[in-house]
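Intended use. Records like the one below are meant for learning the mapping from a protein sequence to its folded structure. Do not use them to infer anything beyond what is encoded.
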Amino acid sequence: FKGADVLQSLIATGEYHVLPAVDVHLGVQMGMVDARWAESMRLQLPADEYLRQFLCMNVKAKNWIWEEHIRRASALGLEAGIERAVPMPGMRYKRRGLLSFGYDHTGHGEDPSASKSALVVCEQIGSWMTFPFVYLWHAGVSDTAVMNDLVAFWDYFRPDYAIGDAYGVGMMTACNDVLYRKGLTPVNRETINDGQSNASSWNEWAFAPMRFEGMTKHVMASALREGFHHNRAAFPYVDQASEHEPPEWVSFCRQLANMRAEPTKSSYSSFKMADPKIGDDLFDAAMAAVYALLTRGLADAPAVIETRKVSRQSLLGLPAGMQTIDRMAA
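Structure written out for the chain above:
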């Protein structure tokens, strides 16, 4: 139940009489709650969130991104009037800042049955990171269908930077070629490193593949977490309890809170799903979109070396005429 900390402080004063809490089990016994719906919610929600909402226990989720910060970002999006972008044929997204794509490829994850291709669009508005669009493909979709959708989304949003899961490098290679042929990007992949598709070439592609693993994934996940926990993230309001909400937006909220960090022998953490049934595809896509803004698409900045000649007299700080006087004296 929301506001549990405030209620607990009021109870601690001893000025209030506490009535028995009606949790989901008592509600089912009294005929107030449908048993099938209660069981469905138990399967959908993370354990801590189910305890809080349905068993009326004063607990908070302690996963990588806390539930309270996700709800605050959703409420902030409602207050700021952030709307969900809906790509339309022949139209262009009205941007307010830098845009980036984050893409997670299907078949790569902790649980193959829960892994789907996912796309998250991140827009930087001032010092805020917002998420106007998320998309989740059905399991088993072909790479051709995903590529065609990505090209259509690219045509609508025209992102400044894009990073995708290198597990789908074959599809992304073809996607980069199509983007160039249609004039959606000035970057021709075939002119980079003799057209080879390897890790040393990817960072210069318009849609750059990258491996989501090891220290890199730790940095990406930390950047996403920092935005939410420091109140610099916002997205359109999502009512997770409503049956009319688009499933991809509900999954987006649940997957953000579905990751937990586990210690490893290395200096960085490993990330696992708290509940494999919920998935992690949109979480991976969101951190890729945020990381694309941080690194400006992985492109290396060209090195600039400046040189100038300085005389010995100048290094000593002597006036320019002193050199002539010294020679005459000699």
